């Protein structure tokens, strides 16, 4: 990455930076087509912020939804986008601190850090630099590369939050629907670390990967209805896909005192189109009604709405202790054509693990590093000193 003092000096001397942004409001499904490589002002940290030079940023489908104004993008997405006021894409950050605000006490120039996703949906990571409030920054695990850390952060937060809500106990039988995805792959490993018996629902092509991550069994959803296994098969079902058909199938297999935990809700791929207000209210109403009614009749219905900052440090400590690995399906350079192609792959909902932008990779358009499950890169764990992580947990 280079000498921290040199990096900081270059940052201070720079007025402009390269970024990837949208400069016009995209149609739904058309974000990749309106992406532009732009020159933007270099951000400067406020008194509580940290300025970070990007090394890696993982790509999330929710970032695309935000840009096109669907799902939560209806509330947090860009407004009044234009060439004069571009919307910089990206939320994930792994990089090096190049400057700190005058009241920042937890970080210094040269620290290698990652950013915890915030509840406001802030963006701007597909750029050379980004400034972030210090409360959403933590030290990068020392034995993870920047690419590996970027891949694991959001997935780890979401998966850990779901498991915490589910109150998984040793020996319980758990089903993970969407086990080969970015969140599911970590979910499988977290559950195994807690002593659960894990069955992963995925395609037959991805069964090898899911088994390698620790699953005891796999079900090929293309050929087998997991709901046909009968009542009282599972204690917990984790839904990472969404849709009422998944919920219906899950309830056919859950024990009476079991739990259905969903991170999506009743609408599958909720950001694929812009829902009407009636559809949105019906979806929310379904979640509220099922959450209340299931307390009486069971099995329990639980929608995961915990904030990443409440789970980040605990998730990272579990990764350290249990050597959790995050699959990285594609590692691409910071290049417009590569990112446009990666967005289209991401929107297929068939990726295994994360697609990660590596800002230090050579720019070779058309040479995107898509890996098979047998070649897929798996992140290691950090087992060194976790003193600051523990201290940060105490502050939450």
Descriptive notes:
- By secondary structure, the chain is α/β, with parallel strands linked by helices.
- The protein has two domains: about 5-140 and about 325-380, Alpha-Beta Complex (Quinone Oxidoreductase, Chain A, domain 1); about 155-310, 3-Layer(aba) Sandwich (Rossmann fold), CATH 3.40.50.720.
- About 30% of the residues lie in helices and about 25% in strands.
- Strands 3, 5, 6, 7, 8, 15, 16, 17 and 18 form a nine-stranded mixed β-sheet that branches.
- Helix 8 (about 245-250) links the parallel strand 12 (about 235-240) and strand 13 (about 255-260).
- Helix 5 packs across helix 6 (about 180-195) and helix 5 (about 145-165) packs across helix 10 (about 310-320).
- The protein starts with a helix and ends with a helix.
- The model is unreliable at about 365-375 and about 380-395 (pLDDT under 50).
